[in-house]
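hey so i finally got around to running both of the ones u sent me last week. sorry it took forever, my laptop kept dying halfway thru and i had to restart like 3 times lol. anyway pasting them below in the order u listed, first the sequence line then the structure token line for each. didnt double check formatting much so if smth looks off just lmk and ill redo it

first one:
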Amino acid sequence: MTTTSKDPILVVLQLTGGNDYLNTVIPYTNPLYRDNRPVVGVAEDRVLPLDDKVGFHPEMGPMKTIYDRGDMAIIHGVGYPNSPRSHFRSMDIWHTCEPDKLGTEGWLGKATKDIDPNKENVLTSVAFGASLFRALVLPGVPVAVVDDLDTYGLLPGISEQTQRARILDRFARLYSPAIGTGAVMDYLGQTGLDTLEGADILKQAPQMYSSSVEYPDTVISKRLKGIAQIHMANLGTRIFYVDHGSFDSHSNQVGMHDKLWQDVSQGVECFFDDLKEHGVGDNVIMLMFTEFGRRTHDNGSGTDHGAGGAAFVLGEKVKGGQYGEYPSLESRDLEQGDVVPNHDFRGLYSTILEDWMHLDAKPIVEGSFEKFPYLG
């Protein structure tokens, strides 16, 4: 008997730097929002309403289109207890699911191993970026990493080597101070060469691709287009990872945040339009997350590091809508001036791992956590 079922695909888009929750999913009818955002608050007539309580940032029009057709779940108040409000430490927690100690194994590295335990496909996981993402790192598990698919392989023997050296060097310099040179070198020694070997195969993907969708000329759009190209090349990739930023909006937030969401929203819309045009989007979801939200009260120019944030899950098979409660903005309910997370990020991961990827989440996220029914 033949089957037409397709393997589920996960695309992770990391909003690096701490995206401002309150100016992304805006509680525009709550007077406390106005009180706390005298400088960076978005005017009510610019908000894109989702209902009578919250609305999107005005540059998120393409995201609202996806939400309105029922292909987006907004998960409110995502985070974890006792946020350290440190970029590196918080992202490390998100990457390893270890909030109480320094983790060494990436959650998607574990998932990749479960999907392909015998390393039959070096392209099971593919990352786009200037460095390896810790979420994908697990000794013995290969990850193909490409900085720019458009230029990769155009200068044989030069471009590939340059990209590989830069990616590995950045990973080593980023993580050696935290987990020690020995641990990083052990990883690179075991899987460093293997890690980028699969990128050689990826050179064929752009040549196999044709589309009427015109992506904007931005970094995130180019990388999302690269993911679409690889997905359509049927190379067996199950997990894609990419980031964009920095969303670290301590100052000059208004123009900065506008541009970031303009680029992300346009790129994401083109990505899903591309998949739809080719009829290959029904087995793809995208997770968008950030390491923490930002301080409730602005600082006169921007917003400082916070705690609770929002995550988004997009795709044709997503049960759209809003999940969880928007955290209270009442001063008595804030911690260190931040909204308090009310949905553990490991529950977010568990939903995706179990209800989409059909994997056992408990050993990956180190326990059982509340899930919401936006998948399955």
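and the second one:
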Amino acid sequence: MSFHWFRTVFWLIPTIAIYTVVLGIASITSSFFDRRGHFAHGCARTWSWLILATTGVHVTVEGLDRLVAGKTYVFVANHQSIYDIPVLFWSIPFQLRIIAKESLGRFPMLGPHLKRTGHLLVDRSRPDKAGIAGWASRLTANGLSLIVFPEGTRSRDGMMGKFKGGSILLAMQAGLPLVPISVVGSRHVMKKGELTTRPGHVTLIVHHPLETAANAEPTPAEIRALADQVREVIRPAVEAEASGARPEPGTGTAPRSSDESGTKAGIHG
């Protein structure tokens, strides 16, 4: 067995378990007093930073200057690793919330906590349009944003799968702008189907927001067209890295189109 396997099993997992328990208790307790969920989000960002620092993951972010601070967005990212969650929560300086299955709402402590702090619990077989509209209004009123992974599963080889339309539909119904994000390199930190984690470098490319108009009844064709449009913005940088394309000189990132410029920020574990 490799050094990284022993490091993961005997150091990272026990250490991260401690972070999770301590910050989880703090987050759940805070939600009884802070119904906006801002403190709970701070716990999530601290948890994310500790995981990245402990593992030795460096993150570079490009394109944050394309966003308006405090505005409500639906961030749409490709999915390469379970490390995508801490990478995004730490690196995107917005109040992020997630979509979870309605069944999680029945778990003691966890379900009520998710509802109190602004996360969306949905029954995918029976979408509640009125509930979605109310949730979207709460997001906007409290300066919250949503993060979604439309692939639905992690990529094993870095090549992107088809985007599912469910999360895109929510944005269209609520009339919220979509922000495509290319997550490049996280698959090397922890590969799908493996327990072993390794230090590494991840690049996030934040693309220009795509505005949507509120549409309570978008057609399947409209949903598919927008999902494909978002995917095609994200895909080039992700699959260039996966195919071994040469990075741009001096950036260490995958090639991008000439209009893709932005700020960079990083952390070191």
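quick thing i noticed on the 2nd:
The chain has one domain: 3-267.
anyway thats it, ttyl
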